[in-house]
Amino acid sequence: MPRATSYSTVYLAFVDAAEQHPSNIFLRVPATRTATQRGDAVEYNYQSALERVRELANGYDKAGVQQEQRVAIAFDSRIDVYLHMLALNSLGASVVPLNMAASDTELQYVVDHSDSVLLTGAGEHLDRLAAIAGNQNKAKVVAPTLLLGESQTIRAAGNATTEVALLYTSGTTGKPKGCMLSNDYFLTMGREYNRLGGLCAIDGHDRLLTPLPPNHMNALATSFMAMMMCGGCIIQLDRFHPRDWWKTVREEGATVIHYLGVMPAILLTLAEEDGENVGGQVKFGFGAGSDPRHQQIFEERFGFPLIEAWAMTESGAGGMTVANKEPRHLGTRCIGRAIDTMEYRIVDESDVDVAVGSDGEFLVRSRGDDPRAGFFSGYYKDAAATEDGWRGGWWHTGDVVRVDDDGSLYFVDRRKNVIRRSGENIAAVEVEAALLSCEHVSNCAVTAVPDEFRGDEVFAFVVAGKHIDDTERIAGDIFERSMKLLTYFKTPGYIAFVDELPLTASQKVSRADVKALALACVESGKCIDTRSLKKRQPL
To answer: What is the CA radius of gyration of the chain?
Structure first.
C-alpha cells in the first residue's frame, strides 16, 4: 500500500515513491519493439526517473510553460509519455497525449480544441506536428532534446483539482470530447487499485505488462498509478504482439497483465507451446470485455485468472467495478461488484430504479459528501454535456447492466450509439460524417455488429446518390475516402448499399432497426466485407 494517501499532486506522490524505492525498476521497455523503436531495452529506476523528470520540468519551465497550460505530446507508446506527464504535473501543467495513428484532421481538432501552447514528440513526428501547429498559429513545436534542463529540485505547483491530463474520448456526438482529469482522479485510481486485494493484491515486487496505449486512461492512469503508488514496475509495449506474447511475458518476468477483450480470444487461436502456462509467474490479468465463452478455457490453459472490470474515462475509480473476489461467474458478462467507495443505481429510461435481475442504465457516483470525487472534472468547453451527464446527482454511463442477488453486476449492452472495437470507442456519427463527404453517398447509417475477436466491428449502410452497378468498386472508393479522414480502426468493416434507411415515426433513423438489419446482412453475407483493408497506416 502507498505510504500516504494525502498527496495533493501526482508528482509529489512520485517523489515519495522515489524516496521509498529508489533502486526499484519503475519504467521499462523491452528490446522487442516496432521498427521505429527497435533497439536495446530501456529502463528507469525510480531515482533515475526522478532525475529525468526534473530535467524535463526545468526544460519546460525555460520553454515558458506555465501552470494550467497544456502541452500536446506525440510519443506513441514510449515511456516518454509518463516522464513528460510527471514533469508537466510538477509545474501544474497538463498533458494532451496524441494518437499519431489519427488523421491530420483529427489531430488538428485535438490540438486546436485543447488550446495546447506547445507540441513535442518523437523525431519522426516533429514535421507533422509543425504542420499542425502552423495551421493554427498558437502552439510552438519543440524537439524533446531541447526540453532537457538541469536536474534541479522542483517546487511543485498545483493541488488536488489541478488538471493532469486532457484525454479525448468518443461520445455520441460527432467530435471527440476532452475529458479533464485531475490530480484527485489519478491519485484515487492508484489508491483504489492498491486497495483491491483478493485476486488483485499487488506490491512493490510486481511487474505490470501493458500493451495498451497511454493516450487512454487504462495505461496512463490505471496501470501507471497502480504501480507507481506501490513501488512496482510498468513494462510498456508498443502494442499487442500475439506470436511473441508469452515469450515477452516470461522474459520480462511479468506478474500482472492488462488486457483488452480481444487479446484472450487471439491468444487462444495460437498453437500451444511448451511452457505457455505461466500461472506460477502471472498473478492475474486485468481488463474488460473478454468473451464469456473463452474465460474458463483461457484460465485453464494459461494458469491465471482474467479479472473483468468496468470503468470509463469519465468515472475513473470514482465509479468502478471489479471481479477481484469469488464468485466471478465465469462464462457470463460479469463485471464484478462495485468497489466500496462508490454507489450505483440501475434505472429505466425515466430514471426509475428497476428490480433486481432487470436490465437498466448504470448510474454511478462516489460515496460520501462529494459524489464527483475521483471522477473526471468535466468535458472541456462543454459544461452543458457535463451537467447533463450528472443530471439528478448521478453520472449516467449510457451502459446497460443488471445485478443479481449476490450483488454481482453484468454488462448487457450500450445505450449510447458507440461502437467498441478492440477497446477503442468509436462514435457512429463521426464515421457517418466522414462517409457523407464521399461523392457516392447520399445518406448513411453506421452501427456495431459483433466480431469474434474485436468485440464490435463497424457496419455502414449507404444510400447511393445515384444508381450504381459495380458495388464492390464503389465500396472500395468509399472505404479509401474514409481512410483519409478517419483513424483506420474507425473505418467501416462492412458496407451494404440500400435504397433507404429505416425511420422512426418522427422521421429519424431507427437505430434499433439499423442494428438488427446490419446483423442480418452479416449473417446472410449480403454486404461487402472490407475488414481486410483495415490496416494501421505506416508512420
So the answer is: 23
Return the pLDDT at 451. Answer: 92
- Cα dist from 284 to 229, 239, 256, 333, whole Å: 19, 19, 5, 18
Is residue 173 predicted with pLDDT exceeding 90?
A: no
CATH of the domain at 281: 3.40.50.12780
Residues 132 and 251 in one domain: yes
Q: How far is CA 180 from CA 69, 117, 197, in A?
A: 12, 16, 29
Coil/strand/helix, residue 319:
coil
The answer on 448 and 398 residing in a single domain is no
Q: Residues 469, 506: one domain?
A: yes
Q: Is the Cβ–Cβ distance between 411 and 310 less than 8 Å?
A: yes
DSSP 175-207: SPEEEEEEHHHHHHHHHHHHH-BTTB---TT-E
Average pLDDT over residues 14-42: 84
pLDDT of 97 reads 98
303 and 423 share a domain? no
Q: For 346-384, how does the pLDDT look when each residue is reduced to its tens digit (9 = 90+)?
A: 999 899 999 999 999 999 999 999 999 999 999 999 999
Highest mean pLDDT among 13-27, 451-465, 503-517: 13-27
What's the pLDDT at 35? 44
pTM for this entry: 0.87
Q: Which residues pair with 197 in a beta bridge?
A: 200
Q: Are residues 89 and 237 in the same domain?
A: yes
Q: What is the pLDDT of residue 4?
A: 46
Residue 286 lies in a domain: yes
Q: Are strands 140-141 and 177-182 parallel, antiparallel or unpaired?
A: unpaired
Amino acid at 327: P
Q: Give the start-end residues of each E strand in 25-121.
A: 25-29, 42-45, 70-74, 94-97, 118-121
For residue 273, pLDDT beyond 50: yes
Q: What is the CATH number of the domain that holds 464?
A: 3.30.300.30
Residues with Cβ within 8 Å of residue 220, at least 6 apart in sequence: 81, 82, 85, 97, 165, 167, 214
In this structure, the answer to whether residues 107 and 246 fall within a common structural domain is yes
Which one-letter DSSP state was computed for residue 353?
B
282 and 141 housed in the same domain: yes
3-class secondary structure, 413: strand
Closest C-alpha to 17, from 234, 171, 164:
234
Residue 410 in domain: no
